[in-house]
Amino acid sequence: MMMRETKPTLAVHKFSSCDGCQLALLNLGEALLELPNYLEIVHFAEAGPSDPTAHVDLALVEGSISTPEDIERIRQVRKNSDYLISIGACATAGGIQALRNLADAAAWMAALYPHPEQIEILPESGAIAAHVKVDLELPGCPVNSNQLLRALRDLLNGVEPVRERRALCMECKRQGLVCTLVSSGQPCLGPVTLAGCGALCPSQGRGCYGCYGPVESVHHESLAQRFSELGLDQAASARRFLFIQGGAPTFAEAGVRLRARAAEEE
Ligand code: SF4
Ligand code: SF4
């Protein structure tokens, strides 16, 4: 984003989501109060300003693309935004609602709604990047407030934000945390999950469930082997991958493979 006399403009858009990532932005505390000194917030319905069709320098997009209407709207948002950041697991991988991608969505809707025929959905809940060009993805459920703030600061200073590529294990090591997988014997997805959350779950003694999504190469076989030594069967291992980031292609592939093997063993 270019530095200039007038303040750059910001829009925050919501698609299929729970609003938790917008709350992560609202939870910035003092930094949020300072934000209007550097950015003009023209659209952020959850916080007040509403101008969804405004052309802006920067758009933050929460939520997945789940309906035909979402496709039309995200194309419009892209057209109206110079730089677009997708925030959260929904926007970067389809979110928890992508669980239906591997299920019989029509049967689920019939079980839940009295008039499912009135609901129009896409066959899959997908990432923003599957439909339009995305300049930066910040995953997580929800997105990490500090990571988001860092990206905004970088852009305001004319610097391209750094893309995180390291695994969560790096954050545990940096913080000197006891390894949940090796030492505490918990099925932790840290070795195959992107860093960025500050090792939130391991710092509380819990294994990671992968909400930041997959690193570049996911060696799911060796991890599933370790999970099995810890007492998880193939079906339970599969569910670990097919969870919040189950819509991310590498996690989906790993989960489906483990699930198929579990079915063969039955
Ligand atoms: S990524 Fe998580 S917190 Fe963010 S909108 Fe989706 S479900 Fe909510
Ligand atoms: S440790 Fe894993 S599940 Fe927990 S917040 Fe971080 S990425 Fe998400």
TrEMBL record:
Task: Tell me which residues make up the NADH:ubiquinone oxidoreductase-like 20kDa subunit domain.
Answer: 18-154
Q: Where is the signal peptide?
A: none
Q: Which UniProt keywords apply?
A: 3Fe-4S, Iron, Iron-sulfur, Metal-binding, Oxidoreductase
Gene it is expressed from = frhG
Record-linked InterPro entries: Hydrogenase_assoc-protein (IPR051349), NADH_UbQ_OxRdtase-like_20kDa (IPR006137), NiFe_Hase_small_N_sf (IPR037024)
Query: In the record, what lineage is assigned to the organism producing the protein?
Result: Bacteria, Pseudomonadati, Pseudomonadota, Gammaproteobacteria, sulfur-oxidizing symbionts
Q: Which GO terms describe its molecular function?
A: 3 iron, 4 sulfur cluster binding; oxidoreductase activity
Per its Swiss-Prot or TrEMBL entry, what cofactor is needed? [3Fe-4S] cluster
User: This protein's superkingdom?
Assistant: Bacteria
Protein name in the entry: Coenzyme F420-reducing hydrogenase, gamma subunit
